[in-house]
Amino acid sequence: MSTALYTQLLYLVCGGLLLTSVLTLWRRELSALIRLLTAQGVLLAALAALLGTQDGGLELFAVAFGVLLLKAGVLPVVLRRVLVDSGAARETQPLVNVPSSLLAAALLTLLAYAVSRPLVDLDPTPTTHAVPVGIAMVLLGFFVLVTRRRALSQVIGFLLLDNGIAATAFLVTAGVPVIVELAVSMDLLLVVLVLQVLTARLRAAFGDTDIDELRELRD
Amino acid sequence: MSGPALWSVVGVVIQVLLVVLGAPLLVALMRQVRARLEGRAGAGLGQPWRDLRKQLRKEPIAPDGSTVVFTAAPVVALSSALLIVAAIPLITTTSPLDDVADLYAVVSLLLVGSVAMALAGIDTGSAFGGMGSSRTITVAALAEPTLLVAGFALSVRVGSSNLGSLVEHAQRAPSVVLSPATLLAAAALWIVVVAEAGRLPVDNPATHLELTMIHEATTLEYAGRDLALVELGSAIRLTILLGLWGNLFLPWGVATTVTPGALALGVLVMVVKVAVLGAALGASEVFMAKWRLFRVPELLAGSFLFGVLAVSSSFFLA
Fold it and tell me: Looking at beta carbons, which residues of chain B come within 8 Å of A98?
């Protein structure tokens, strides 16, 4: 693959990652959020595969396949089951309303660009130029975690955060070793499964999945 | 007059005639697509022109107490739209008015039309007119930042905000069209086109329901010849917005040289582009409901965000 084509595809994939993260803040329907997360998983796998074509080794292709399986296959299925169990179809009242959170997303993206400039300056290649996208995804994931109240939206924020970390790792170092990636993925799956149980218990206890109901500790 | 200069004048005349004659047909096409998809027969492609002919024969009536603002508004709106048509690159980038075709100048000229209509709405003193004016200006004020930011994202790479240069640059380097910055700017500007043209989900052009209408509320008091001018003006406005969007993001086929062949190709490509975009817009409206007015800022905040992302990614992803 020629360098120009590679750069163009890389930037297109990164643009797609940024777009799916931002749309996560825009959409209220939880099923739409799950679809966005699936799309993001596919794009992340595409990013790993693209870096694999430049790297030459087979390792990154294996990682890409693993990412595709986990983030575009298993996690969406689990999340859909949570959605059916929880019964709530929409994020009704986020702590920050949608227009404000969209403006906040614009600011967070600029912040990501500002903080990653020293990082890009260390080794200015086409790949590292896209690092701000990964950092913006991390910040947007944090933002979703902080401002959304449904348990499922929180899981989605958490997964967005993790996708951001993975994207940054791919862009900076062409991926972490497979064993680390595997461990992180297992952790991720466990977290989502635990949150699935938590959501079901929340609904059993309060009839709702609003995590603001969790106010006091008991034993 | 030398050959090329003559042909560039001919090109602009063709462009203006094409838009003025074709704009009502575009409106008809969009209504027809919508009607067919909803299972109705539709009024046919000639209906807007038949309406215009009928209205042009009738005398204009101005409400009691309205001033020159009311009578001048249709003329101001239509003439500013015609000036834009003569300047911007729709079928050719070599207009003699090319210096006027700055993106920001064109946006301001579009705004002149909106403001004239909003002032006319207030001038009649009716409750609906005032409401419509306030809504028109709210939407325009929210759409403006997006236009400026997305326009900046497009012009930063070319180093010029001249529309002709933008189209020529995109023709020379087709890979630019698929860059994230351009795609994000395209999404942002599409939302602005929908908002400025008063289409669903921002405004419903087919209704006269008091509580929801935006653009129609400012034109309620017009009759006869003035109404014809207002409707022709808003049809031309829609054509300008769709044509400009099509040329900025699908720049192929626009004549950059002034030969008869290139101009003929430009006309053909322009008609196809605007018809396809209009049909797509009309078809998408079948699946949409009008949003509550208080949700419109959400849509426009989203388009502003796309604009900001387009600018920032044209810096870090380029």
Answer: 298, 301
Half-sphere exposure of B28 (CA within 13 A, CB side): 17
Number of domains composing chain A: 1
Which residue, B157, B52, B151, B44, is CA-closest to B107?
A: B151
What residue type is B224 in one-letter code?
A: G
Q: Is B176 helix (H, G, I), strand (E, B) or coil?
A: helix
Could you tell me if A54 and A6 are in contact, meaning their C-beta atoms sit under 8 angstroms apart?
A: yes
Domain boundaries, chain B: 3-316
Threshold 0.80, pTM exceeds: yes
Note whether B307 and A102 are within 8 A (CB).
Answer: no
Domain that residue A142 falls in: 3-211
Least Cα distance to A15 among B113, B184, B211 occurs for B184
Report how far residue B44's alpha carbon sits from residue B48's, in angstroms, rounded to the nearest whole number: 9
Domain contains A43: yes
Contact status, residue B195 vs residue B40, Cβ threshold 8 Å: no
Angle between helices A3-26 and A98-122 (to 10 degrees): 150
B82 contacts B248 by C-beta, under 8 angstroms: no
Interface contact B178-A8, CB threshold 8 A: yes
Query: Which residue does chain B place closest to A100, by CA atoms?
Result: B301
Nearest to B38 by CA among B288, B292, B239: B288
pLDDT tens digits along B52-83:
999 999 988 888 888 899 999 999 999 999 99
- Domain assignment present for A216: no
A56 found inside a domain? yes
Residues of B in contact with A14 (CB under 8 A): 180, 317
* Residues 6 or more apart whose Cβ sits within 8 Å of residue A192: A75, A78, A79, A155, A159
Question: pLDDT by residue (tens digit) across A32-67?
Answer: 888 999 999 999 999 888 888 887 677 788 888 888
